[in-house]
Design a protein that fits this description.
The protein has 137 residues and is mostly helical. The protein has a single domain, classed as Phosphatidylinositol 3-kinase, Chain A (Orthogonal Bundle), CATH 1.10.555.10. Helix content is 67%, strand content 0%. It contains eight helices and no strands. Its main location: cytoplasm.
C-alpha cells in the first residue's frame, strides 16, 4: 500500500516504530526462521567472542535470501538509530530488548521464556555491535 510519510499521522516516531514491529511480529514466520532459533541460541552462548561472531555470521549466511536481505537492511537501519543514542536513548542493548523477541522466537514457547528473551536480546545486540563483521564481505 502506498503511504504518504508527510502525513501528520507519521510524525510520532512511536507510531512508525510500532508499525515496523507489528509488521515483523505478524509475519507467518519470524525474520530468523524457527528452524534457526536453537542454532542462534547455541551460537550466542559461545564464550570466545571471535568464535561467537564467526558462528553468528555463518548462520546468517545460511538464511533464505529474502530473510538475509531484509535482515541486512533492517540491522543497518537499527545501527543508525543506535549511533544517535545520545539523542534518542536507544542503545544497541535497548534495541535488542525491543526487537529481539519480535525477530527471533521459538516455534513453541516453553517454560524457558525468560532465558530465551535474554538470548534473543543478546543476539540482536551482538548483530548490531558487530554488524560489519557479520554482514561484511
Amino acid at each position: 500500500e502506498k503511504l504518504n510519510l508527510d502525513d501528520s499521522q507519521w510524525e510520532d516516531i512511536h507510531v512508525v516504530t510500532g508499525a515496523l514491529k507489528m509488521f515483523f511480529r505478524e509475519l507467518p514466520e519470524p525474520l530468523f526462521p524457527y528452524c534457526f532459533f536453537e542454532q542462534f541460541v547455541e551460537a550466542i552462548k559461545i564464550q570466545d567472542n571471535a568464535t561467537r561472531i564467526k558462528s553468528i555470521r555463518s548462520l546468517v549466511k545460511k538464511l533464505p535470501r529474502p530473510n538475509y536481505d531484509t535482515m541486512k537492511i533492517l540491522f543497518e537501519h537499527l545501527k543508525k538509530i543506535a549511533a544517535k543514542e545520545s539523542v534518542n536513548l536507544m542503545s544497541t542493548q535497548s534495541l535488542g530488548i525491543v526487537f529481539g523477541p519480535t525477530l527471533l522466537r521459538p516455534e513453541k514457547e516453553t517454560g524457558n521464556m525468560a532465558v530465551h528473551m535474554l538470548y534473543q536480546n543478546q543476539i540482536v545486540e551482538l548483530m548490531l555491535s558487530e554488524y560489519s563483521k557479520i554482514f561484511g564481505s
